[in-house]
Amino acid sequence: MATAVAVAVAPWKQLLVNAMQLNSNLKHSSYFQLATIGSNGRPSNRTVVFRGFEQEESNKIQINTDYRSSKIEDLKHCRFAEICWYFTDSWEQFRINGTVDIIDAFNPDPVKLQQRAKAWFAGSPRSRLQYLGPSPGLPYISEEQKQEYSLDPATGPVHAFCLLVLDPEQVDYLNLKSNQRLSFQSMQTDDGGKCWKTEKVNP
Amino acid sequence: MATAVAVAVAPWKQLLVNAMQLNSNLKHSSYFQLATIGSNGRPSNRTVVFRGFEQEESNKIQINTDYRSSKIEDLKHCRFAEICWYFTDSWEQFRINGTVDIIDAFNPDPVKLQQRAKAWFAGSPRSRLQYLGPSPGLPYISEEQKQEYSLDPATGPVHAFCLLVLDPEQVDYLNLKSNQRLSFQSMQTDDGGKCWKTEKVNP
Fold first, then answer.
1. What is the torsion angle, in degrees rounded to the nearest 10, for the CA atoms of residue B111, residue B113, residue B114 and residue B118?
2. Do the chains contact at A43 and B203, CB–CB below 8 Å?
3. SS3 at position A171
4. Of B38, B59, B58, B36, residue with least CA distance to B46
5. Total domain count, chain A
6. Are B87 and B67 contacting, i.e. CB atoms less than 8 angstroms apart?
7. pLDDT 10s digits, B38-91
8. Cα-flanking dihedrals φ and ψ of residue B83, to 5°?
9. What percent of chain A has pLDDT over 90?
């Protein structure tokens, strides 16, 4: 008899969903900072946009990125990342540490490729055009910039489009209004699932 | 004859000062995210407060922290850090990579100790009290929390107070309104000074 593996909703997730709701009047409330480690051994940090959870009942966090950006090189070198998400209205901070799955055009898993296509179509047709532009971070050549790009709205993800999925393993929650801090640590269960230990810590 | 070492004001600094001014109506405009590398080899990321430049003509960035916080352990293990500073009103991002100098109570340099004392007195008497509280990140014990702390406003920095000074080596500037990106790279000059190379790169 197969054992059912429970995908427990993490205890920090409701706090995060509440914070998103409380701050939803601010466009920047869906922006957070993603730290990675560069192949030069230095930390790297940039603002990215929250693109939803993998599924409604999942704890995994989705981010869209350009496959040619340096964060891909960072993540290929070291899969660990930490999100720092500060909500400016409710004064809440979430630090979410985990491993990142890179889902690019060459991913061998058809389910993941479908997930990538879904993320592509969830973006606006205008936002998709950026993936047709010149390589981010490379020297700017004015001739390249003059080019006008267009894309059929029905066209699937272009090669440069990449989906990142962060699987949280450790979450630190800080509320600066109530001055409370909680630490959440994931643990593997005997049946291959995940459970979370919650601890109140000093702010 | 001694050669004068020119401390050149970095070309990105005026952009940063302008952004601070443009966004000064927002309390959170002085908050940024600091990424470090933990001794476990994972990236770490948290929100901290900008406490000014080392001196008016300096490019070095000051941050106050608790010596007992985990970022000190991170920085002792690896001195590199990257600031990600996103200005929510002007849609500008600064990514500032450099090395961090830890100025704690045991620093042998009297000039640095003076700098630490200056940073201590620049904070409000109320904000100083947090350094008397229990160790950040350790399990919360309710009895400890009940304690009331007080401090003579004339008292100098307590042991737990630590000044961090980040010396920028590389800066990436992104303006999401104009869709322009600049890359600044520092280089050592022959006379031991520093000069900056500016390059326009693809956003």
1. 140
2. no
3. strand
4. B36
5. 1
6. no
7. 999 999 999 999 999 999 999 999 999 999 999 999 999 999 999 999 999 999
8. -85, 135
9. 90
Q: How far apart are CA B89 and CA B29, in angstroms?
A: 9
pLDDT confidence of residue B2: 44
pLDDT at B1: 41
**pLDDT grade for A4, boundaries at 50, 70 and 90:** very low
For CA atoms B101, B75, B45, B64, the dihedral sign is negative
Torsion sign across C-alpha atoms A34, A37, A38, A44: positive
- Least confident stretch, A42-46, A85-89, B192-196: B192-196
What is the C-alpha R_g of chain A? 19
B189 close contact with A: CB closer than 8 A: no
pLDDT at res. A144: 59
Retrieve residue B86's tokens: 């996103």
Amino acid at A73: E
B86 vs A31, A42, A97: nearest CB: A31
pLDDT tens-digit profile of B68-80?
A: 999 999 999 999 9
Nearest CA to A45 among B73, B62, B68, B166? B166
Instruction: Quote the pLDDT of residue B142.
Output: 83
CB pairs under 8 A between A and B: 138
Q: Is A44–B35 a contact, with Cβ atoms under 8 angstroms apart? A: yes
Percentage of chain A beyond pLDDT 70 is 94
pLDDT of residue A145: 58
**Is residue A146 assigned to a domain?**
no
* Residue B5 buriedness (CB in 10 A; 0-12 / 13-18 / 19+): exposed
What tokens appear for A81 in the block?
């990342």
Sole residue written with tokens 């720092």: A84
Based on the number of CB atoms within 10 Å of its own CB, is A65 exposed (0-12), middle (13-18) or buried (19 or more)? buried
Residue at B142 is within a domain = no
Residue B5 is assigned to a structural domain of this protein: no
* B99: nearest CA partner in chain A: A42
What's the gap in Å between the CA of A15 and the closest CA on chain B?
18
Domain with B80, as residue range(s), is: 11-134+152-201
How far apart are alpha carbons B26 and B14 in whole angstroms?
Answer: 19
Residue A188 lies inside a defined structural domain of this protein: yes
Asked if A52 and A118 count as a contact pair (C-beta separation under 8 A), the reply is no
Q: What is the CATH number of the domain that holds A130?
A: 2.30.110.10
What are A163's strand-pairing partners?
A64, A103
